[in-house]
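During the practical work, I worked with a single protein chain and the tokens that describe its fold, as given directly below.
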Amino acid sequence: MYIKGTDIQVGIARVSFDPLHPYAMCTIRLGIKKKYLKNSPLKTFSIRYIKIPFICLSKYPGIKYNRLMYDAVMLETDPSIEPLFHKSSPLTEGKYEESPNPHSDLYEVVKTTIDGKQYYMHLLKPLDPILAGIGNCRSFSIFGIPELTYRMKKYDPNSKIVTFDTSPIRRAHVSVLRQSQTMRHLGGHTYHWNYSSVSLKDQTTPLDWGWIAGTSIHVKTCIHDPAVSLYKYDKHNIFNWIPIEEITTQHPSFGSPGEDLTVVFPEVYVNGLPTPFVAKASRQHPIHKNPILFLQREKELYPLEHDKDRQKEHAVVQIGFKHHTWFAHVKCLTLKPRADYQKYLHHRTQDAHLYISDYMDRMADNKRPKVM
């Protein structure tokens, strides 16, 4: 995607399901002047992770052919409000608050109701050159985000576009520039969210990512739902509605599955979920003597989730689905899907279809050759 009002492209690494933290984790090239890199391990192509509110992102570039690609109705200059935009400004942006800011006429206010309570997000209205600080300031923050703070190289008064003293070259329209870091709350160790969700099997704590319990299948939350969420299998275009209690944030640990794998179960299910897998194990694996009896014994021997050292004692097999393979503990396998999980195959079908369709369109657009 792109940062609104700029030509800066970002990659979306993670998004937060939490409605009170409507941020995307974005990857972006550093964009710093080469002369500052002589004695630094950083390079201009080094990647940085930053948090950006969804409201500041767009599918299309905000600047093209040296002009703004959308209409920005700017705040009118008023001497009484100019002091608010100085570097010691108390203005904040990009987070939900319980009450409107006293200077709400300066903001675009986004209201939302969460658990029956009203919250307000504030984003400064487009600024004109005077309020943005052109002429008084040489360093600007895009939308007030600390990591997007650059020195100005030149300013075009006709297009109102600032070119920054960076490599690669970056441009931003004056309407999205701030003299101060109004989103300072996003700064610091921005690779981490403001909270750390920990959820084990049979717990329903919401999370952004995790593993299907007892397997090496890493999943990311696409659509959060209180009971069952839409997850994407990491690095694979596989989407499934899965009950939250089957997802764990505890990193799984596996012993060696061996070599010379042969099919044990042509159709098996993980924790009773309705997705069929093919299970394979090495020819020396004891499961081959009596697969069903071995499966039952593993369930009795290891009935609960254990720490990593204990997990290595669990019997492990390789499971496959659509030409992709993972590992799974034998104790987590079932011969038939649980009847109550069948309904999740068609849970919120329309929502899933729209999400997957949009995801595929974006992936196709990334692969399409760009004509500059």
Notes: The longest strand covers residues 261-270. Helices lie at 129-132, 291-301, 308-311, 349-367. The longest helix spans residues 349-367.
